Amino acid sequence: MITKFKMYEYIDVDEPKIGDYVVCNTHYGQTDLSKWLNHNVGKIINFYARPGHFNVYYENIPYDLNVYFLSRFNKGGYKEMSRGEILHWSKDKEDLYASIDSNKYNL
What we know:
By secondary structure, the protein is of the alpha+beta class. The protein is built from two helices and five strands, in the order βαββββα. The chain is globular, with a radius of gyration of 16 Å.
């Protein structure tokens, strides 16, 4: 079997892609939301209208934080995140859970 490599092909590994799993943090003063986002994994479902912004989907959102995920444009579970708010991303969800656990226990 012959394998061909494209030397001119550019692979951008510095930016998250649609379908990647992410751990985020918000820049706003909502400490409960920040803690919850730091300990949960979301999935990028599409790019937002502004450059460098993504729609991130979350499951199992606590009832008291649900207000941050609802708007007239979406039905819940989605939050707009900028590139600066995304702390870690990976194609594999388990890699991010390992990262969350290591941060939780200061490893």
